[in-house]
Amino acid sequence: MHATVRRYEGIDQSRTAELTKKVDETLMPNLSKLPGFNGYFLIEGEGVVTSIGIFDTSTQAAESSRIAADWVRDEKLEGALPNPPKVTDGEVIAHKSDRLNVVA
After folding, report:
1. CATH assignment of 2-91?
2. What is the rounded distance in angstroms from the CA atom of residue 82 to the CA atom of residue 22?
3. Structural contact between residues 5 and 56, judged by C-beta atoms closer than 8 angstroms
4. Which helix (H) or strand (E) holds 28?
5. Bridge partners of 84?
6. What b/e string do you get for 52-62 counting C-beta neighbours within 10 Å, with b at 16 or more?
7. Domain ranges across the chain
């Protein structure tokens, strides 16, 4: 299992609701169609938005980063996300989860 973490700093906090809505309506459906998709999380805190994508392979995780970058451009979110994300990706070497039900 592989994870990709994207940390967007310096976001336009007045556009957080717009960003969240677009993630829900357009980005997550596209990512969830990718082979090997296991989950996606969006976290907001103190002017930073962090996303976590979980995939079966590193190739699939890398493809999700390409899709996310294209999505920012296509949705014209460069103003809301003015700085390129700090990306960390790699193999998940330990994890545990029980039935996780997330309601936004």
Report:
1. 3.30.70.100
2. 16
3. no
4. helix 28-32
5. none
6. ebbbeeeebbe
7. 2-91
Q: Which residue carries 């976590």 as its tokens?
A: 52
What digits encode the pLDDT tens for the residues 36-67?
999 999 999 888 999 999 999 999 999 999 99
Half-sphere exposure of 7 (CA within 13 A, CB side): 9
Question: Exposed, middle or buried by CB within 10 Å (0-12, 13-18, 19+), for 89?
Answer: middle
C-alpha to C-alpha distance for 19 and 89, rounded to whole angstroms: 22
Angle 44-45-47 (CA atoms, 0-180°, nearest 5)? 100
